[in-house]
Amino acid sequence: MGLMLIDWCALALVVFIGLPHGALDAAISFSMISSSKRIARLAGLLLIYLLLAIAIFLIWDQLPAFSLLIFLLISIVHFGMADFNACPTKLKWPHIIAHGGTVAVWLPLIQKNEVTKLFSILTSGPTPILWDILLVFFLCWSIGVCLHTYETLRSKHYNIAFELIGLIFLAWYAPPLVTFAIYFCFIHSRRHFSFVWKQLQHMSSKKIMIGSAIILSFTSWLIGGGIYFFLNSKMMAGEAALQTVFIGLAALTVPHMILIDLIFRPHASRIKIKN
After folding, report:
1. What would the pLDDT profile of 127-175 be if each residue is shown by its tens digit?
2. Cα 159 to Cα 50, 78, 92, 148, distances in angstroms
């Protein structure tokens, strides 16, 4: 599959603007370690993080369709949680499902012809069962959108409602990779940076935050570059780029989601309550 110039630009945005939002994970981990052996414990946590990412990569190689489905499911939760925490409303799960499902459910279905080609590259073949499951997800997403839109308009959270409606129309009209890049880079990553930076200012130094982000970003780019050139020796450049970016994102999202949504957010909430 050959990618258009705008698709390459979208992938570049994801890699160089969106991906670094996870590079603060080392600083996050370091900030939560109170032991005197912080460096050793941080090294252990980063090793676990890396092993989880490698495990996801290997599982994807053996079960690509199943792995893609799980990636879409956790993306709904992770993206939706970030949007909800940035602008909370009374109906939490409709909010999460509506926002997280826009790029993970609505986008694939409304741009099915194009996304089918992308999915076939990521799974090395057709995925008919995946599309059947996405229809079930779509039903849940539609209910979430209706409840969430009603609640935001009723409570006069117009900015939240208009953001969701704007994303829905963007997914309808823009190329799939462009829609994903805009959401991932300028909504999700921006909110993540804002949240983490605000929390870590009370828990870590700017030097540690910036230094760890730079180191992990360059490390990720180097590893990704190596994987891309390896894959490009066996397939077309566009296919190699898609597999590198999205399978790489899936591999990093699992440990990133565990750290952020299951560990750091509750930890930050407890700190806030104490203060």
Report:
1. 889 999 999 999 999 999 999 999 999 999 999 999 999 999 999 999 9
2. 38, 21, 17, 13
Of the candidates 227, 216, 233, the one whose C-alpha atom is nearest the C-alpha of residue 61 is: 227
Q: How far apart are CA 54 and CA 121, in angstroms?
A: 20
pTM over 0.90: yes
What is d(CA 49, CA 251) in angstroms, rounded to the nearest whole number?
10
Is 123:61 a contact under the CB 8 Å cutoff? no
| Mean pLDDT of the 90-114 span | 97
What is the reported pLDDT for 222? 94
The tokens for 140 are: 């849940």
Name the token pair of 266: 């509750």
Q: Please state, in angstroms and as integers, the Cα–Cα distance from residue 109 to each residue in 83, 102, 114, 242, 270, following that order.
A: 22, 10, 10, 19, 39
In angstroms, the CA 17 to CA 59 distance is 27
User: Distance between CA atoms of 1 and 119, rounded to whole angstroms?
Assistant: 11
Q: What is the pLDDT of residues 178-187, one digit of tens each?
A: 999 999 999 9
Q: Which residues of 222-252 are buried (b: 16+ CB within 10 A; e: fewer)?
A: eebeebbeebbeeeeebbbbbbbbbbbbbbb
DSSP-H helix ranges across 155-205: 158-173, 176-183, 189-200
For residue 84 the two structure tokens come to 């909800």
pLDDT band with cut points at 50, 70 and 90 for residue 270: low
Contact 221/28 with Cβ under 8 angstroms?
A: no
Tell me, rounded to whole angstroms, the distance of Cα 8 from its chain centroid: 19
Q: Left (φ > 0), alpha (ψ -120 to 50) or beta: where does 156 sit?
A: left
